[in-house]
Amino acid sequence: MAKKSPITGKVQTVLGPVEPRSLGATLTHEHLLFDVSHLGVVPEEASERAWKDATLTMDRRGGLGKRFLGGCHNNALLSIPAAIEEALRFKYAGGGTLVDVTSTGLCRDPLALATVSRATGLNVVMGGSYYMPVAHPAGTKKKTEDDIAKEIICDITVGVKDTGVKTGVIGEVGNMWPATDVQVRVLRASARAALETGAAVNIHPGYHLKSPPFIFETLTKAGLPADRIILGHLDAFHDRAWLRDLVQLGSYLEWDIFGLEDSELGAVAGQPVDFGTDVRRMEDIEFTVSMGAGNRVLLGHDVCTQFQLVRNGGKGYAHILENIVPRLRRRGMKVTQIQAMLTDNPQRALTFR
Ligand SMILES: [Zn+2]
To answer: In CATH, what class is 11-350?
Structure first.
């Protein structure tokens, strides 16, 4: 693994390195400041166009699931005061650390994350690398694996641009299925940066059963150990035999869209996806724990839209602590098993090797 450095054995937050044991309850896949409104497609139908710039009111809330990228500026979290207010709910519920996996292409905002961390007293860990090809900045296609790896390493060791704010995890690395050349280059560069620095890699897979195993293989072939890989968005897959095989790979497994239960979610980057429900998530996690892999489960809400915020009728960043933990307890999960998912596993995953 990485050569010993000042961050070896530590977790790197936007305010600097901290001891892993100071993280507390940790959500490993969130967004505090975020914007993908530029990825939306303008619909042809006149009445659908009315949704685009409409104000998010309660009567429109239910219609935003199937207009995931196309309504009420739903896909933009642009306000620092709003981020602070929403993040504080997680803190008041007992939370300690939020991982903001807003990678390049999702309008990452290092200084704003530092402000949210100072204002809330929460640890905030910032992500690096690149989101899906559809979100790549102009010129990304021309970059070599070497160029991309150097960028990711620089974000970790020097900081993003001239902010001095450093990333603490690599990802979410955005993928499509089938995989494109540039996507494989970003994956290989992310693996190299992880090997060089000791950081973990957080993956947004393509929404196809073949995608997570393909990504795992690409990263491990580049030399990255399984336990430096976080396979995210497992909420999108509904196949138990497949999950049993995936668990055998030995990576971290992240159910990270808790609270989003829309039965009809619009296509993301042209890929239709069905994220299931909280019940389904709990069942899959219980199944994973029953296979002895509870020490590799990570949790989050992937808050990235307006209608997920409490101020807009959503469940926000505190939903897992306030609502899911008591439900898991009632369903028979042990306190130690819950603590592993919320505290022990994130500590291990986020600690630089
Ligand atoms: Zn994602």
So the answer is: alpha beta
